[in-house]
Sequence to fold (733 residues):
Amino acid sequence: MILFANDWLTQAAKPDFTTRNTSWLDYAGLLDKMGVKNCLFHLAIHDQGLIGIDPHRTDLPTDIRTRIALECAINPWYTAREVFRVPAGSGAEAEPIRANRAFISAYWLFFNHITNIIIQPRQTGKSFVADCIKVELMNFRAKDTLLNLFTKDEGLRKENIDKIKAIFDALPPYLDLRNKTDSNNSEYITVNALGNKLYTHLPRSDPRNAEKVGRGFTSPVHFYDELPFQSWCSISYPASLAAMSNAIDRAKRANSDYGVLITTTAGKKDDRDGKFVYNKLCSTACIWNEALYDLPDQPTLEATIIKNTTDGTPTVYSVFNHRQLGYTDAWLRERIANSKGTPDEAARDFLCKWTSGTGTSPFTPKQADSIRAGEAEVKYLQITDIGYILRWYVEEQNLASYMASNKFVLGLDTSEATGGDDIGFYLINTSTARVVCSAKINETNIITFSQWLADFLCQYTNVTLIPERRSTGGTIIDYLLRILPTKNEDPFTRIFNLVVHDADLDSERYNEIRQGSRRNPDTLIRYRKLFGYSTSGAGQTSRSKLYSDTLFLILRKLDGRFEDSDVINQLLGLEYRNGRIDHGTEGHDDMVVAMLLAYWLVLFGKQLNHYGLNGSHLFNELEDFSNLSKADLVRNREQALFRDQLKQLSEVYKQERDPYKLTRIETQMRLIERKLVLESNELLTVDSLLTKLKEEKHKESVSRHRQPIRPSRLIGGGVYTGNTTSSYDYFNR
Fold:
């Protein structure tokens, strides 16, 4: 079966560009537009003599029928593209399967043995792809194999069986291997000619029996339909996976198919069963993107997915909205109107949104709706050489120039990265406040990650890093402090640190690090514990500061448009617990913390000019999210410039001692004050600012005159070669 680009070199197959099922050609064109190089795999045909032959013709000779049956057995793409038909309603003819992003990716992942969770709107064929795979296995590829289907209730079980039978019935009669000995009931299907069986299972109402139903059937292939709505799935699902492990080992030895496919609509995050599926399966999985098609082989695919999951299992979470599946907004509006459901039901059934209804969410319903609606499409999925998946919200062709011409802050939530929490990676543009790149990284060596991060910072020199200093954060920071100077990068200008942030509290320390190459070589060692944002304890750099001030301030500024799917999912999973905002007991907030760190630095960070972050540029394009007029935009940017000028003059005033120059600075500050338009509740005046600056200068002067000269501060054995005219000035700078 053709799955990867390299497979064309080892298998006698060619793409069929003459297929009458033109939707499959259209899909190849879509992949090409998306930048996917491996864009023809689903057009594969091994027996080129079958090109142009309709397998549904009734006058085909026996040898052609045999060759078609063989092609179906070795090439599921051919079966789905040319043979299978979508069962039609009464009086209508069955139609060929239309290729779309959900159908093709589900096939590709299943035959690569990757567990796949598919979320898509109702009435878009979410379970049809699973039914096609079942028939492909039972009728063409498998032998002496048991397939298991777990579904939520008796009605859905019968519906599933009926749909599978309909796909069988739509086959050309010579390809349908069922006979009179095969079952014809609502609970299981057999193809005795090949020794294959499909059993269906219903959930149980108590934990003990739920475990029994999970462990009761060993099989290398499991299908789950509407898993979030299956009672006690938190018990039955893990039990069923444990039961299938031996069967998978046998399938591997026999080089036969195995895998897990979950098809469902979104559920409720706060009920028992929905919480399990959302927290343990969806939130921990690698997010689907078509860029995975371009990986070289199955082992690389599996390793890449594992590195980008939380629990270390090769699982992909695929969410497709109506537009991605080829349906219009009008279609969606009609379906929602006809469903007569509640807003929450509509969000789950048609918008692919997980909902909460416990009242513990920190967000109002309106805020939650804004957050859900803000999701944006990833524009470029970069898979690094070591398997990290970076989701860029900038087109690949524009990436280099974009990163060179803007300023960025990178929030990093650290973890052990060994199968629990992820390392959260969140990059924002300091002018637009919009996400530029995100990633969640797991199953990695911390030193390997630190080396990669150092290379990232050296590649993109306009990025300022703010890492969380807990867990492995200290190790990552220590490595960066060691490696960045060897690459001519000053950690004090590239990584958030309290030496810079608290310069107004300890100007001597700050002045020391500003000496650059002239400073004492042990400076980084002495101040290493001052790098990063410590979320433990209280104070200006605390977890509560992120979740109280930063979260709701940026929520208001962005109008809920957080864009990144991982951040959105984790935000909507937050709840009030033990008097504070936190993730659910089985949830995660690593991406949220990474995001909040980035925004906190822009909103509350001090001495940002030291990192190369110009205050006049910070969030100055944020108004693009609003409906402000061009005149308002210009006015707001002017105000930002005035405030930045006032800030710069304040810094100069603090360092200046010449009375004449101080008077000139005061005059300049008062001229700017006349142009400022104060926001509501803002009490900024130059008089109050000058009073504060003078108090600080007085305290500094007193401290300076009281401080003894310390020989340890001498550079190069006591020889100072700077440009100051007095040794007193040097020792007291």
Observations:
- The chain has a mean pLDDT of 84.
